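Thread: quick sanity check before group meeting

JM: Hey all, I'm pulling together slides for Thursday and realized we never actually wrote out the predicted structure for the chain we discussed last week. Dropping the sequence here so it's in one place. If anyone has concerns about the input, flag it before I start.
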Amino acid sequence: MKLRYYIAVRLGLAIPTMIILLTTVFFLMHVLPGDPVVIMYGDRYPTKYIDEIRHNLGLDRSIWEQYGSYISDIAKGDLGISFVHKVPVVQKMSNTYACTLELAIVGLIVSTLLGLPLGIIAAMRRDGWFDHISRLVSLYIHSNPGFWVALIFQIIFGLMLGLFPISGRSPPDFQLTKVTGLYILDSILTLNFEAFIQSIRYLALPVLTIAITSIPYLSRLSRASMINVLGEDYMVTAKAKGLPQWSITYKHALRNALLPVITSVGGQFTALLGGTVIIEKIFSLPGLGSLLMDSLTARDFTMIQGIVAIYAVIVVVMNTVIDIVYAAADPRVKY
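JM (edit): ok, ran it. Output follows.
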């Protein structure tokens, strides 16, 4: 099977997968205890007015009618109107997605640039002092939860040393022409050097937290993969042929060792997009994670379902991209 046909099949299978996921979320939200209208308005209004609001929101219809309308709207790209914010879900998410996306991208880049070389060097110097120290430090870092690391960074680098801000995404007087919503990228595109520095300062501690908690996993994976490749027969043959060590390491061993790391990095990116909730809360970042938590608390059905739909699309796209990159990196992969 050619790669393009494989991609088409994967995209075709993604549609029922997304429908199952969205259906599960829809019915879970409707079986949870509590009335979203009562949660929003409490006992401040008479029952007649509450019933009128419920009717306007369509919550008095049967659950199957609501489900049919929900799937129909999703197919048309309409994620509905937020119960709480009274604005389209797409509009509200457009103001928050960039923060989560920027945090995930920069965090993944930093953790990969640090974790990958660390694991490779440790594998090349197996059982040496560098290998033992790096494994010990990685184990120690990995044993600390992300929220604890974030709080420590806030205290040390924010409060004690005053090097970085401990909350928010930008200062009150921040001025930047919006192009993509990603502050670092927009500051580069608009040649706004001051905004670039401010964006880096406010993003430093959250990104460092993500990197610190991700580096141990990436370094251990790259180390194990590199050690496994170095023990293969073709590596022994390459040495016997008298090839230079740099050629053996970087041309033959590294490319094959990176194959499982590629899959892992893609999975890490998807996990970061959906797993930055705690980081966003601790650093008061206006991202999708914070919006999802607030929506869950307020039982904002449409907002929750909209965010889950976006996450589902991202997961499907990322998995397809990972497969394409994997096939490009390893010509032996056949479809």
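AS: nice. The chain has a mean pLDDT of 78. The chain has 15 helices and no strands.
JM: adding both to the slides.
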